[in-house]
Amino acid sequence: MSELTAVNRTRGPLLTIWLILMALANAWTVYQYITIIEDFVSHSDPLFTGTLQWALPLLVVLAAANLVAVVLLWLWRKIGLYIFAATSAVALVINLILGVPLLTSLIGLIGLAILWALLRPRWEYFR
Of 60, 62, 113, 114, most Cβ neighbours within 10 A? Predict the structure, then answer.
């Protein structure tokens, strides 16, 4: 990549705001899932068996991976989008396994669609 391209690439206000919102939302999601897991464990909740025992910790890992993806996108790395797409697909499957209705589960892909729409005009700047 030439020096000129590196100097001229700009995120723009919408992409900047969206990346910040994604970082905040995923940080909040990590906190919320950890709080839920702690609550289940501390109360020895009988609902915290089977699927929930692996699904909730995995959702924490996915939200943390999304934080890494946002940082990579901020640093102009294509892999950030690939990570975000992969975590979105896995989260969709987990939600369906947990019994979340299909339409509700698909709503989770709206963030990915918005991200792609904001990245697409600047995709040439990503490495």
Answer: 62
